[in-house]
Amino acid sequence: MVQKLYQRLDPPLYTLDESYFHSDFLRITKYCRDELSPTMEGLLQMISKEEASQVYSFPVFTDEFCRHFLDELDHFERSDLPKGCPNTMNNTGILLAELGFDDHFMNRFKEHYLQPLSALLYPEWTGSSGLDSHRSHIVTYDATGPTDRTDVGLSTHFDNAEVTLNVSLGKEYSDGELYFGEMKGVVVSNPRLYPYYHKIGRGVIHRGQHLLGIVFCA
C-alpha cells in the first residue's frame, strides 16, 4: 500500500547504478565475482580491515549517494503515510521494500554484489545455494534520547540472518559506537567487546550469529 501511494522524490534512485558505489567496493566485489579463482587470502588483502574476528569493514557507497538516499528517506518521513517497525528490536525504522527499493535495487545488490562477497568470506553460512532472501531496512539512532521516530541504542543481540551488512548513511558518530562480542553460544572466560565507529558510506559485514549492540555516550 505504501509503495503505491508514496510519491518518490528521486525516482532514478530506485534503480541500482554502479556510480553509487565507492571504487574500493567495486574492486572488491569484481574480484569476488569475476576472478577465475578468487581466494579468501586475496580478498582479505583487498579489504585489509578486520574489526573483530571475521568482522570486516570497507567503503560501500559514495558520500553523494548517501546524501541523495537520505534526502529520499527524509521525504518519506515527512509524508503522512504509515511507518512501521523493521524488526522486533527497534521502535521505528523503514523497510526499503515498502518504498519499492527491492525490484531494481536491493535484489540486484544482493545477487551481484553481496552474494559473491559473502560466498568467499563466509562459505559455511552462505551455502551452495547462496543468500536466498534479504530484509533491507533503515534505523535511526539519536544520542539525545529516543523519539517517536528514533532509537537511542540497541542491547546485545544477534541477527536473524546468515550474513549482515550494516552501512552508515548519515553523520559520523563521535559519541556512540557499534560493538561486537563473541559468536552466539561461545563462552569465554574473559569476554571482550570490539568497538566499531561508523563512517559515512562505509559498511561492516559479519555473520548473523555474531553478538553485537549499539551504545551512545551522550
How many DSSP-defined strands?
Answer: 10
Proportion of residues in extended strands: 15-25%
- Measured as a percent range, the helix fraction is 25-40%
**Topology pattern, helix = H, strand = E:** HHHEEHEHHHEEEEEEE
What topology, given as strand order, has the largest sheet?
Answer: 1-2-9-6
CATH fold title: Jelly Rolls
Task: Let me know the average pLDDT.
Answer: 86
CATH architecture identity = Sandwich
Radius of gyration: 17 Å
Mind describing the biggest β-sheet? 4 strands, antiparallel
Oligomeric status of the shown chains? single chain
Summed up, the helix count is 7
Q: What is the name of the CATH class?
A: Mainly Beta
Q: Which spans of ≥5 residues are poorly predicted at pLDDT below 50?
A: none
Pfam family, one: OGFOD2-like
Protein name: Fe2OG dioxygenase domain-containing protein
Keywords: Vitamin C
GO molecular function: L-ascorbic acid binding
Question: What are the main properties of this structure?
Answer:
218 residues, 4-stranded antiparallel β-sheet, 31% helix, 7 helices, alpha+beta, Jelly Rolls
Would you spell out the secondary-structure blueprint of this structure?
Elements: H1 2-5, H2 23-34, H3 40-47, E1 50-52, E2 55-59, H4 63-77, E3 94-95, H5 96-99, H6 102-121, H7 123-126, E4 137-138, E5 154-157, E6 163-167, E7 176-183, E8 194-196, E9 202-207, E10 210-216
Q: Could you write a compact summary of the structure shown?
A:
By secondary structure, the protein is α+β, with helices and mostly antiparallel strands. Helix content is 31%, strand content 21%. The strands form 3 sheets. It has a 4-stranded antiparallel sheet with strand order 1-2-9-6, covered by helices on one side. A 4-stranded antiparallel sheet has the order 5-10-7-8, with no helix packed on it.
